[in-house]
Amino acid sequence: MRTITFTQIIRETLAAEMRRDASVFLMGEDIGVYGGAFGVTRGLIDEFGAARVRDTPISEQALTGIAIGAAAAGQRPVIEIMFMDFITLAVDQLVNMAAKLRPIYGLDCPLVLRTPSGGGRGYGATHSQSLERLFTGIPGLKIAAPSNAADASGLLQSAIRDNAPVLFLEHKLLYPLRFEVADELPAPIPFGVANCTRAGNDVTLIAWSYMAHLANQAADLLAQDGIEAEVIDLLTLNPLDIGMIVDSVKNTGRALIVEEGPKTGGFAAEIAAQIMEQAHDYLEKPVLRLASPDCPVPSAKHLEAACIPTAADIVCAAKRQLEIRN
Hints:
- The structure is a single chain.
- With 326 residues, the protein is an alpha/beta fold.
- The chain has helices at 6-20, 44-48, 60-72, 91-97, 101-105, 149-161, 209-224, 242-252, 267-279, 301-307, 311-321; strands spanning 2-5, 24-28, 53-55, 76-80, 112-117, 142-144, 166-171, 178-181, 195-198, 203-207, 229-233, 236-238, 255-262, 288-292.
- Helix content is 36%, strand content 20%.
- Helix 7 (209-224) packs across helix 11 (311-321) and helix 8 (242-252) packs across helix 9.
- The strands form 3 sheets. Strands 3-2-4-5-7-6-12 form a 7-stranded mixed sheet, with helices on both faces.
């Protein structure tokens, strides 16, 4: 076993896939010599050269469109959008091109779009958003949102080898965290299979990306008070493993869904609706959602911290589900 950062395992996985398959190449702004905004691709240009680690102009629309064309022609591009906020500039390409090639034209589109998501770094309203909600309802577009290093590697391998376009979310606060993993890279992880990271009978905590990381911390805190929370780390949002969620909720009778984005219109609402459809008779309390308020993410540290759910917030919300006063 070894200890490795989230950043390092993404870099190692990209390099391993590029060695395995000559059709895999990288595109993005400042990903070459500079190594990317968060250093994920640092050093890859030295091994693979500028032809396979391509710096692009500052145009998310253009680089995404070019990558879709390359994917349709048989290549496997992995592109990096510097901040998830900028993905809005490539919505037309992703929604009306990449996601439609297979169902309409019968063409594979093996494209991976990597992007740092979420807040917590004081970057302000246009560099701190969690925008997965914009894409969870797009047929043909897969979404991965890992919460730890091993899952990130396994999901990224599957994403690169998939023939459908994949939106791959990497939360900024995960990058510097250190995780214990095997010496060898983990095996690919199939999409649509969530991970029950902690078993429990009192309440089900459902989350993804950095919020799943916090949910596990919250479960440890709850255990100190004799509350056994079951934690479901979704891993992928599309496809969604609703089966594991429903089975867990049927067992605990209580569900708390945690997401970082604004509460209104969030993906947590979709999960809650599906739980109500499939497990209503098993619920002892209505499904509870914990999310950010409906406002832009502030840049001031104390205001930003007040907006984004914390492990302590998850603990309080879980206790409300159990009608326990703090």
